[in-house]
Amino acid sequence: MFGKSITLFRLFGFSVRLDLSWLFIAVLITWSLASGFFPSHYRGLSTQTYWVMGGVGAVGLFLSIVLHELCHSLVARRYGLPMKGITLFIFGGVAEMEDDPSSPKVEFLMSIVGPLSSVAIGLACYGFYLLGRQWGLPLAAVAVLSYLSGINILLACFNLVPAFPLDGGRVLRSILWKVKKDIRWATRICSRIGSGFGYLLVALALYSLLAGNFINALWWFLIGIFINNAAQMSYRQLLLRRAMEGELVSRFMKTEIVTVPPSASIQEFVDDYLFRHHFKMYPVVDQGKLVGCISSREVKNVARQEWKNRTVAETAAHVCTTNSLRPDTDALKALAQMKRDGTSRVMVTDGERLVGILTLKDLLEFLALKVELGEYE
């Protein structure tokens, strides 16, 4: 779901990361508040003040979303569900789960706490807003508190819409899961509702555009597209987990491996391996012992005039957790690692011995075959 992200801080043991796409939405929120919302509701302030209010409002929304997702994460950890952390991305945030909830009860509690936390934040901001008016705080300050109160209540209501993967959709999934005893069926129903809700928002965006409200149209369109895509992706991820459940890397690895001797020159590696076999990564083996791996990435760091003089041993990358796995590794974890590290081939090792190669293509073809056979629809 995410692209490049940066870690901002840790909170209660969870890493809070910012997806670079959120920078776009932060600018859009600040601009919408500074040029539209605050000037229309609070007249007579300077342009500079409106932009400061817009920036503070965007930061306040950022913190509200972090607290919302933190509540999800704390409940998940309470029930033993592994969490990778919290990532803020283009349309809010997500508490990243490594697996599906263990039961409908866990799903319900973990989902409902999000909207409840947003309501609590909204009521707290409203309380400070009332106190600010009583204490005579500047209009800009109470205006931002009023905005944060309203937006959190609005977020709570929006998240309660029963459209997966919104919190309301997850609550609905927990109910259907409880009734039918089938999480896949429940996810399929809720994902279709979520996808339909996304199309509805796109239609609302078109209506707003025809009515001359460009800002609202842009928001509805972007949110609608995101929810539609997220709903479909969530269902595919569930299918992926179910298809890979209990499978080990040893089932998918290839044991016929093209290896490179460490004594070969870079020129020989390019001519005899890269151009002949077209793989992206090659293990480097010396007398049956795995000593590293080499790919076009390492070759790019060597000047072309040195290719005949530099050996593979001098250039190869060391064996590490990003380019190797054990044969008894869970296939789903292997897939997640390959996605996280941006690799399509990893070495399968048993101690210092190379036993196979795992490719992303083989994992995805296995999933496609299961879908084609009707096991996962």
Tags for this model:
9 strands, about 60% helix, alpha/beta, single chain, about 375 residues, CBS-domain, three-stranded mixed beta sheet
In short, what is this structure?
The protein has 377 residues and is α/β, with parallel strands linked by helices. It has helices spanning 21-41, 47-78, 104-135, 139-159, 167-180, 183-210, 214-244, 249-252, 266-277, 296-300, 312-315, 331-341, 360-372; strands at 5-11, 14-19, 83-89, 92-97, 281-286, 289-295, 324-325, 345-350, 353-359. It is elongated and about 80 Å long.
Q: β content, as a range? A: 5-15%
Shape field: elongated
Strand order of the largest sheet: 1-2-3-4
How many beta-strand elements? 9
Order of helices and strands: EEHHEEHHHHHHHEEHHEHEEH
Low-confidence stretches: none
- How far the N terminus sits from the C terminus, by CA atoms, comes to 21 Å
The number of domains is: 2
| Rounded radius of gyration (Å) | 26 Å
Helical segment tally? 13
Helix content range: 55-70%
The helix-and-strand class reads alpha/beta
Q: Report mean pLDDT, rounded to a whole number.
A: 84
Largest sheet: 4 strands, mixed
Explain this structure to me?
The chain is α/β, with parallel strands linked by helices and 377 residues long. It contains 13 helices and 9 strands. It has helices at 21-41, 47-78, 104-135, 139-159, 167-180, 183-210, 214-244, 249-252, 266-277, 296-300, 312-315, 331-341, 360-372; strands at 5-11, 14-19, 83-89, 92-97, 281-286, 289-295, 324-325, 345-350, 353-359. The chain has a 4-stranded mixed β-sheet. Strands 7-8-9 form a 3-stranded mixed β-sheet. It has a two-stranded antiparallel sheet with strand order 5-6. The protein is elongated, with a radius of gyration of 26 Å.
